Amino acid sequence: MFKASSPDEKALVEAAASLGLSLVSTQPDPVDNKTRRLLIEHRLPDEDTDTMIEHQRQRVDKLEYLVDAVLEFDSIRKRMTVMARHPDGTFNIHSKGAESSMLEPEACSGSNSRSRTLAQDKAVEFALEGLRTLVYCTRQLPAEEYHQLLAEYRAALSLLGKDRSVALKTSMLRIESGLEVLGVTGVEDKLQTGVKECLEDLRDAGIQIWVLTGDKEETAVTVSQAAGHFPERMTLLRLTGCSNYEEVAYQLFQHLSGLDARNEQRRLQKRRRKQPRHESPAIIVESVYSPSVEEVDEVIMTAADLKKETQSKGKSLDHKKLLKLRKRLMRFVSPHLKDNKTPRKPDRRGRSKVGASGESVGLVIDGNSLAHALHPSLRMAFLDLCMSVTTVLCCRMTPLQKASIIELVHVGLKERSKQGGGGPVTAAVGDGGNDVSMLLQANVGIGIYGKEGREAVRAADYAIPQFQHLRRLFLVHGQWSYHRISMTMVMFYHKCVTFVTTQIVLNFYSGISANSWFTSFHYTLYNLTFTALTNLLFGIFEKHLTDEQLLQHPRLYRLTVQHANLRAWYVILWVMDGVWQGLVIFYSVYFFLAGNEARASAVFLTLDPSPRNQFDFTLCGCACLVYVIISVNIRAMLHTRDFNKAVAIGLVITAVGNLALLMILQARANEDQLKFISQLFVEPWHGEFYSYIKLAQSPTFWLALPITLLIAGLPGLIWRIYSDHWWKEQMQRASKNRAAPCVSMDHLIT
Questions:
Q1: Which residue, of 188, 248, 294, 745, has the greatest Cβ tally within 10 A?
Q2: Which of the 8 DSSP states describes residue 429?
């Protein structure tokens, strides 16, 4: 068994072992602790027999290599290099990495053009099969040059700060130059189970999926097609192979103009179907994506500035090339946008079919082109292109570029989000150390336990064992969490409005005297104990739909994305319901219990004719408090769809606990109790003294209780019945046809 820092290295070592070259051990050199000894067994068949079948007759040669330095892989160089001494006494440099860096003229100048072309062709061939490619180069040096390069590299490692980075860059450049192409390998990275189904459900849920990978373009496209990220009949727009800023700008504006042409062709076809045959449809050009003159001029100015930085001093700019570039770019400017000076503001369109024939459109961009597309003069146009297609694939990406893409989405859609709707929410999914910066940049980071270590899991907000579990994480737990949090918020508003409404109405009947029906303890304990547990249990255990229903109908997730439960009109409905309950409770106490000149107050089951047997100001407040507590807790239970054991226990605790608390607050403290505890109780002369026991002796109080609760909870009851009917209708429609659209009645998702 072999262990490696990446699955690719492990696969290569295992492949070498199957060919007779087995890595036995690696350990520090006792002479030089900076050098490691690699012991390799080379198994060869016996010359006298056709062995290779019988292990006992194989001839084994033990080879020892001395590795003096390891130049670790980084996202800028895109290669890994070792300096090693071979058993035959030669001094060698071996390097492996991406073909984009290994086949550069400076790196492999030791090979002829035919070898480089052959290696490039093989890399493309392997990539088209979905394999992860690596190019290998080598170089044999004289002993003096080898030790000189090794000494320079070790000296650079001993430096600190900026000098260290500059010296390392110079030393690595010298070591990794003049190499000779040795070969190309392809490693199969099999897709996990359920990846294709997971992507289909997430896409059906309205989630726009982008793939950011460091693989070669051909490999990334092949894997995307196998995983279902690129469905069949999808048109691919490619922004790849661009070597400079001007090429990226030209291709970017060309694709944006092409989207306008596709939209116009689609609109023209629709008008032709609607109008009679003898009438010709009116042609109305509506440019949505095409660049403006302001954008073209900004690109020309940027190109001029970049040329000034790269060209030698004293050399003038070639204005003819700039004018030629402007003329090429002006071809993509729509005529009616020539006077438009409004800056481009990308929008979250999320269109699945943007092609001229109604097909999906995908965008493929590589790391070199992306470096120019993220320039301030092009990034808004690039983001607009990304948000206008069905899906995006970014290949040959560095870790910083992955994080830059997420930052671009946040910043680019920020202005549009201010005008209406919530801001963009991004979720990054990764399984390796190269994904850490992306996971930290996203709103939600999700790490997958993989073979490339646990760096991604440690940096993520959530961790899952396999990619297919994203389906349940988003569609089930995502919807449950959103529903619980959002509804707990509006229910909190509701119960507070109900409580405050009774006091506001009382002020109009008390001459704005600031008298209150409730004591300071009532105000303190209302949210702390009286109504806390029901809302807390709702926020923990509520399930508005079962997990089977949510997984079976991914389109229901679209209602969650619309932020239905937090829209202003929906919150206002809950506030109005709270006002209604507060008014009903106040006037129930006012008409049923309190007396005035026109009617007598409620009576008590006692023969004592003292003034204590009348509903005074304090008893009316106690009755109102009891009605409010029971009403808002019943409203919360009426809204609960998953009535489990925890919720039932919470109801019992709320009822018994609140009753016991009210009994304690109305009692009298004994003289032997501590002083700070006696402050919680009341004296016999106080109006609160045994008020709730007195209240329980009134039959009118008990008769008015169900009437008050029924009238106060009637709107919520009707709401719940209609909501259940609507959900059943949606389930039946989704069962008949999964592609059927959901009716956008946001308040009914509660």
A1: 248
A2: E
CA 119 to chain CA centroid, nearest Å: 39
**Domains of the chain and CATH, by start:** 7-188 (3.40.1110), 195-275+286-310+318-424 (no CATH), 475-710 (no CATH)
What average pLDDT does the structure give for the chain? 82
pTM above 0.90, yes or no: no
What is the per-residue pLDDT across 482-520, written as a single tens digit (0 to 9) for each? Answer: 989 999 999 999 999 999 999 999 988 887 877 888 888
Dist CA 238 CA 572 (whole Å): 48
φ, ψ of residue 43 to 5 degrees: the values are -95, 125
Give the span between the Cα atoms of 267 and 291, in whole angstroms.
Answer: 20
H helices present in 599-698, as ranges: 617-639, 645-666, 675-678, 691-696
Query: Residue 280, Cβ neighbours under 10 Å: how many?
Result: 9
**For residue 103, which of 83, 126, 78, 127 has the smallest C-alpha distance?**
78
Q: Are 465 and 475 in contact (CB under 8 A)?
A: no
Task: Tell me the longest C-alpha to C-alpha distance in the chain.
Answer: 125
Q: Contacts from 189-192 at CB under 8 Å and sequence distance 24+?
A: 189/7, 189/130, 189/131, 189/132, 189/223, 191/223, 191/226, 191/227, 192/466, 192/467, 192/468
Structure tokens at 428: 């990054």
Q: What is the pLDDT of residues 177-225, one digit of tens each?
A: 889 999 999 988 888 889 999 999 998 888 889 999 988 898 999 999 9
Question: Edge-to-edge strands of the sheet including 235-239?
Answer: 210-212, 391-395, 361-366, 235-239
Question: Any idea of the CA torsion for 546, 548, 549, 554, to the nearest 10 degrees?
Answer: 120
3-state SS assignment for residue 271: helix
CA-to-CA distance for 438 and 447, rounded, in angstroms? Answer: 11
